[in-house]
Amino acid sequence: MTVTIYHNPACGTSRNTLAMIRASGVEPEVIEYVKTPPSRERLVALINAMGGDVRAVIREKGTPYAELGLANPSLSDGALMDAMLQHPILINRPIVVTARGVKLCRPSELVLAILDNPNIGIFTKEDGEVVIAPR
């Protein structure tokens, strides 16, 4: 199975998701999207594959969301995507792409639903939370 993760190594949820993917026996393609943002076309494709809700993919915490006025409900999806492309930290993470789907994996265990082998056993997140994978 080919797996791609749009990853931010500074994010604990992203690190946990990456560890779960690896625990499933897959070495994913890791794209550090803050350093290498997706193209507009790729971002549109990812958002569409996740249901088309642009606002669901915008990260508010720890970003210039408020300063840029992105809470304004009159902003178009295109304007929101422009902001995400100019400031990739606004793209919520981690986004994981597999043959079984595309998902924003918050919380990290959501990744298990799109992995060929979700049976990773008992997994402990960085914060100590224990996740028991399905059998």
Give a short summary of the structure.
With 135 residues, the chain is an alpha+beta fold. The protein has helices at residues 12-23, 40-49, 77-86, and strands at residues 4-7, 29-32, 95-98, 101-104, 122-124, 130-132.
Report on the structure:
- By secondary structure, this protein is of the alpha+beta class.
- It folds into 2 domains: 1-33 and 93-135, Glutaredoxin, CATH 3.40.30.10; 39-91, Glutaredoxin.
- It is 24% helix and 16% strand.
- The chain has 3 helices and 6 strands.
- It has helices spanning 12-23, 40-49, 77-86; strands spanning 4-7, 29-32, 95-98, 101-104, 122-124, 130-132.
- It has a 4-stranded mixed β-sheet with strand order 2-1-3-4, covered by helices on one side. Strands 5-6 form a two-stranded antiparallel sheet.
- A hairpin with a 2-residue loop joins strand 3 (95-98) and strand 4.
- It is globular, with a radius of gyration of 15 Å.
- The model has no long low-confidence stretch (mean pLDDT 96).
